Amino acid sequence: MTKSTNFLSLSRRVLRRDWEVFLFVAIGRLLLVSLQLIGDMPNSKGQYPLVRHLVEVMDLLRSRVMPVLHPLSLFAAACYLLLPLSIKIRRFVVDIFAIWFALRIADLFLLINLLIFLRMPDHAQLILQLVIFLPCLLLMWGWVYWRVDIGSQIANGKGIFDFKLADGISPTIYDYFLESFTSLISSTLNGFSGKTRAARTLIFVHGVMMWDVMV
What pTM was estimated for this model as a whole? Predict the structure, then answer.
């Protein structure tokens, strides 16, 4: 009984401290599945030469580069979890993880948009790919909102986002992800707004990406 209690207590501490790493590992796995669902690129001869060349380059990254780098990211995650790193180094490693996965999401987002211009042999395959890609996009935006707001609080003593929560309570990590997923069912983020131009720009870019995916 004591061993199981200690294990659960240790698991909670690890999840509370390193939840970002587990989040990005999950996002990476979903991105890998989404990329694998594309399969062979559709025959695009005679259609939009510029689009065809861009798709060919991105397909090369998808089929050759990503499968190699994904195991390396898992290795880096294992080192992060097991090695006794300082808080600053941990923060730096997590932010590098975030930049890497944000670039992967942007790459896949662009690829999905380019595939619309080509004759896809199986439209259901593209829809399934979007269904898997969507949680990656929403999870990433939830993290971005949280990281930017927390970073502003540390640097300037105040956040850049305004939450209209009951009784004036402070937002938790959950609230940032909740606002991100709310964009899936609402055209506006009710009760969530930006205090600065940068914050409002982030919300605008998020909204544009969500509209693009849904359309």
Answer: 0.82
